[in-house]
């Protein structure tokens, strides 16, 4: 369970996240949508305590992230697949993270197997494709077998096989009763994966509804998204 | 805390720059060999020479190469973005900083002392009984300055780490450490008397000889620091840099 209460983050004159209140509940995948620069990644960083909110709060299972001991066992996150040291092997990268939360090497081998990187575990991450790095990032998120998982655009760079794999993985994880917050720009993919959708635009909440509700009023999820965010697009050609 | 330390230890030994830095520091042994053979050759024509001890003459080489270990411990995480995974895994930021300081401090302490002692022993073996100046003492006399030299490397590495937390940039941190080592002491020497000796005595490179009760240079005067003052200054450099680093780490968004 992730709860945001009037979460606000201001960078100088820019309001990146503006009075955001919503709850991400367990048992299903919650899609997190919004145009570029709408505050999705900032919101995720705020939830993880990486950035401090200007006002409001973000709680994970009722507590601020920074107050969790062994946080990886409660929350797993993939923010940026490229944020890895290219000189380190996949195995050592995961083991570095695992050790901080008293997670053993056996679990590292397990998640590497689960994401399909067991064969390249000893290879340097610098040589990985974006798709392989996404898998590595997902492995890192899964290390602590957490109840709450957040993924920021994990589908980017994956091949069709990988896209389907992520879809199945997300649904499986949600089916196990976990809380899943998944951001993506691929609407067709989101329609297949998510049950609930949260849309933000210019840092504000635009919609918090089920996929069913959204496609009841529009032909597809993409059309619903386009209609809802029409006034929120900051970067791009007019449409 | 033990878990974070073991993670930082693995971070350090699972990337190659660590080994490059130690390898470059170890070049001091080779330079010491060349130096000792060179000055030994001079004794043939002059009878005796007053040569500097190689582990003192080449100390800046170890200082500069190992300071990189302290700097990279944090700046490599900022340049790659790994810092966000790191702070997600360890949300107590002070623990992350302390673990990095502990590991970088221990590694540079051991590496520096090993290289310095090997250089010392090898140069003495090569010098044999030729009077080269630096080999006309006894080991117990030289030990304090050997330890002071080794510790100065760790202090610099920790200063580099602290500055790394502040600047978040590898180049920025290294460029900030170099003045501490080479530029400030030179400027201090040009201050009006008696401040030039007072300030020079506080400069990090000049703390090394003072620990052994020696003057940093001729014409230095007698105003050098008492032993406790030297230790306090030396630890002060590291503590202040790390405290500023911690302040920035806690205050800023990752």
Put the structure in a nutshell:
By secondary structure, chain A is α/β, with parallel strands linked by helices.
**How would you state the average pLDDT of chain A, rounded?**
94
Order of helices and strands of chain B: HHHHHHHHHHH
> What is the total tally of β strands of chain B?
0
Secondary-structure content class of chain A: alpha/beta
Q: List the quaternary state of the chains.
A: heterodimer
- Nearest-integer average pLDDT of chain B: 90
Largest sheet, strands/sense/barrel of chain B:
none
Describe the overall structure.
The complex is a heterodimer of chains A (239) and B (254). The radius of gyration of chain A is 18 Å and the shape is globular. Helices cover 34% and strands 25% of the residues of chain A. In chain A, strands 5-6-7-3-8-9 form a six-stranded mixed beta sheet, with helices on both faces. The longest helix of chain A has 16 residues, at 160-175. Chain A has 239 residues and is of the alpha/beta class. In chain A, a hairpin with a 2-residue loop joins strand 8 (196-201) and strand 9. In chain A, helix 2 packs across helix 3, helix 3 (105-114) packs across helix 4 (130-142) and helix 7 crosses helix 8. Chain B has 254 residues and is an all-alpha fold. Chain B is 78% helix and 0% strand. Chain B contains eleven helices and no strands. Chain B has helices at 2-13, 16-46, 54-57, 59-80, 82-89, 93-127, 139-167, 170-188, 195-200, 204-211, 227-251. The longest helix of chain B is centred in the middle third of the chain and has 35 residues, at 93-127. The radius of gyration of chain B is 20 Å and the shape is globular. The mean pLDDT of chain B is 90. Chains A and B meet through helix 2 of A and helix 1, helix 4 and helix 5 of B.
Summarize the helices and strands and which ones pair or pack:
The complex is a heterodimer of chains A (239) and B (254).
Chain A lengths: L1 E10 L2 E11 L4 E5 L6 H8 L7 E6 L14 E4 L11 H11 L4 H10 L15 H13 L5 E5 L7 H16 L3 E5 L3 H7 L2 E6 L2 E7 H7 L3 H9 L10
Parallel strand pairs in A: 3-7, 3-8, 5-6, 6-7
Antiparallel strand pairs in A: 1-2, 1-4, 8-9
Chain B lengths: L1 H12 L2 H31 L7 H4 L1 H22 L1 H8 L3 H35 L11 H29 L2 H19 L6 H6 L3 H8 L15 H25 L3
Helix pairs in contact in B: 1-6, 2-4, 2-6, 4-5, 4-6, 4-7, 4-8, 6-7, 6-11, 7-8, 7-10, 7-11, 10-11
């Amino acid at each position: 369970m992730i709860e945001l209460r009037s979460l606000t983050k201001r960078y100088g004159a820019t309001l990146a996240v503006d009075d955001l209140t919503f709850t991400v509940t367990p048992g299903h995948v919650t899609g997190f949508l919004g145009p570029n620069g709408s505050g999705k990644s900032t919101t995720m960083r705020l939830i993880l305590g990486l950035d401090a909110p200007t006002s409001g709060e973000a709680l994970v299972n009722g507590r601020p992230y920074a107050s969790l001991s062994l946080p990886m066992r409660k929350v797993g996150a993939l923010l940026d697949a490229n944020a890895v040291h290219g000189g380190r092997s996949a195995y050592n990268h995961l083991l570095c993270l695992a050790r901080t939360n008293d997670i053993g090497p056996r679990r590292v081998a397990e998640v590497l197997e689960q994401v399909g990187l067991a064969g390249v575990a000893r290879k340097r991450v610098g040589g990985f494709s974006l798709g392989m790095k996404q898998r590595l990032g997902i492995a890192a998120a899964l290390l602590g077998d957490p109840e709450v998982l957040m993924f920021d655009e994990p589908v980017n760079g994956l091949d069709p096989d990988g896209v389907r794999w992520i879809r199945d993985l997300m649904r499986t994880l949600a089916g196990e009763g976990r809380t899943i917050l998944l951001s993506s720009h691929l609407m067709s993919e989101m329609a297949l994966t998510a049950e609930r959708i949260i849309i933000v635009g210019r840092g504000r909440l635009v919609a918090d509804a089920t996929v069913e509700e959204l496609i009841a009023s529009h032909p597809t999820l993409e059309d619903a998204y386009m209609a809802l965010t029409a006034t929120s697009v900051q970067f791009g050609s007019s449409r | 805390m033990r878990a974070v330390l073991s993670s930082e230890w693995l971070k350090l030994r699972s990337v190659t720059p660590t080994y490059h830095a130690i390898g470059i520091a170890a070049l001091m042994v080779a330079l010491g060999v060349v130096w000792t053979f060179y000055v030994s050759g001079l004794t043939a024509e002059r009878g005796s020479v007053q040569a500097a001890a190689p582990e003192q003459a080449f100390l800046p080489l170890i200082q500069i190469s190992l300071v990189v270990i302290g700097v990279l411990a944090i700046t490599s995480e900022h340049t790659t973005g790994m810092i966000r995974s790191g702070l997600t895994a360890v949300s107590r930021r002070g623990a992350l900083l302390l673990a990095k300081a502990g590991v970088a401090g221990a590694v540079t302490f051991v590496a520096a002392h090993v290289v310095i002692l090997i250089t010392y022993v090898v140069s003495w073996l090569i010098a044999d009984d030729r009077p080269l100046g630096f080999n006309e003492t006894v080991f117990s006399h030289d030990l304090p300055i050997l330890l002071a030299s080794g510790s100065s490397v760790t202090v610099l590495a920790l200063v580099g780490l602290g500055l790394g937390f502040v600047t978040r940039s590898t180049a920025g941190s290294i460029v900030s450490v170099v003045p501490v080592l080479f530029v400030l002491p030179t400027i201090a020497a040009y201050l009006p008397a008696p401040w030039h000796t007072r300030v020079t005595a506080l400069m990090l490179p000049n703390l090394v000889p003072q620990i052994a009760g020696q003057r940093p240079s001729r014409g230095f005067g007698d105003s050098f620091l008492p032993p406790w003052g030297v230790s306090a200054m030396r630890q002060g450099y590291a503590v202040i840099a790390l405290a500023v680093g911690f302040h920035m780490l806690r205050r800023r968004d990752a």
